[in-house]
# Entry
Amino acid sequence: MSNEHNPVIRNLGNTTSKASAITAMCAHCMGCTATHLEPSFRIEIRNCTAKQCPLYHVRPYCEGLKGPNNVSEIDLVG
# Structure
């Protein structure tokens, strides 16, 4: 993949959005860096199980993002 597909590099620019920053952070958590792009980072983000992460409910590459209204009591307890 080229640099334009690397969310970590895209987020290094001067003008970034919140969505770009969240995508870059999730990609970084899955092993992407400015010099390395994990081939399956999108799938790993989609399958993330770190429900304690503050970005879990807004992570990219998920169909039907899990907003706060979709959190069950089990998720909150833990």
